[in-house]
Specification:
223 residues; mainly alpha; 11 helices; 73% helix
Length: 223
């Protein structure tokens, strides 16, 4: 029961940080988290410690605990890891992908499309990000790179917060759908080089997007 409660508290807190329900730079504590999620201080404290290791919380002993601000340098590092992993598995993905896998990717893209014209809320942005991640996760599974998928899930905190901030602004959603359709076209043709080119372009948008969000929300980013 304790393990389940600890995991639930961690998951809720992480989602609230990712979706900006808790803002970058906002001060928190085990007591506040315990009250927020109606748990004792033990799972609240453990959730904060876990999220510190993921770069989402800054703990200053005997002083304070704050939601970490978005670090542009960390985003570039996380983006580099994701880009290298996905491009690196492209050949294995294209060699092994089936029509059923392609249909699964299309189903995730349909979920993304269902959010395009709906008002952006933290919950919807989080679901949108999940569907986007699921779309790309198919390539990891087909290529047999499950460890890479785990790394992406656990080490992309700053990168994913930026993606969610972009989604909450309701910008670039159509661009994402168009990019995904282009990726699917190359996969259907089993054209590895065209897939890698389309993927590189798709993942590369985040750098210019980061500058735009930094200018609009300067208080969310580390100086």
């Amino acid at each position: 029961m304790d393990k389940t409660l600890n995991q639930e508290t961690y998951t809720k807190l992480k989602q609230d940080i990712l979706s900006f329900e808790l803002k970058p730079g906002e001060q928190v504590s085990a007591a506040k988290i315990a009250e927020r999620y109606h748990v004792s201080r033990t799972p609240a404290r453990e959730a904060l410690v876990r999220l510190e290791t993921e770069g989402m919380v800054d703990i200053y002993p005997q002083s304070k605990t704050v939601i970490s601000k978005i670090n542009a340098h960390r985003i570039r590092q996380e983006w580099f890891i994701r880009r290298m992993l996905e491009l690196g598995m492209a050949e294995a993905f294209i060699a092994n992908v089936t029509d059923q896998d392609i249909e699964l990717m299309r189903s995730y893209n349909a979920v993304l499309a269902s959010f395009v014209n709906r008002p952006a809320t933290p919950e919807r942005a989080f679901l949108y990000l999940a569907a986007d991640n699921d779309f790309h996760a198919v390539s990891y599974m087909v290529a047999g790179e499950r460890l890479s998928a785990t790394i992406i899930d656990n080490m992309m905190a700053h990168y994913n917060r930026l993606r969610l901030l972009i989604d909450l602004e309701h910008v670039f959603k159509t661009r994402t759908l168009t990019d995904h359709e282009r990726l699917l076209e190359t996969v259907e043709r089993r054209d590895t080089e065209a897939y890698k080119k389309a993927l590189s372009q798709h993942l590369g948008h985040i750098i210019s997007d980061m500058q735009e969000m930094n200018e609009k929300y300067p208080d969310y980013f580390e100086k």
